[in-house]
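Quick log. Single chain, no ligands specified.
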Amino acid sequence: QVQLVESGGGLVQSGGSLRLSCAATGINFEVYFMAWYRQAPGKQRELVAVISSEDTTNYADSVKGRFTISRDNAKKTVYLQMNSLKPEDTAKYYCNVFQTTSWGQGTQVTVST
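-> predicted structure:
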């Protein structure tokens, strides 16, 4: 059974940084694309970043140049480094085995002005 556990969210001031982590178990991690999504109150869940099994990355336009997705296959962990945070980045962030129904429970990120 796949389990994804996110951590690293919190409250940060505008312009600050946070690093999210997602630890995976029950999966042959290194062969899967992994993704981060986010969902703000009253909005649909949106794709933030994806990393392939060969470390190719893609980002939503809204986070390009500010966020970096990375992975450590030995630790079965995917990361999201978030810099220059803005209030509009406030959302619950979810880890996902890309294009599957395996999701973490989410971690809240709140960016204050």
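The chain has a mean pLDDT of 97.
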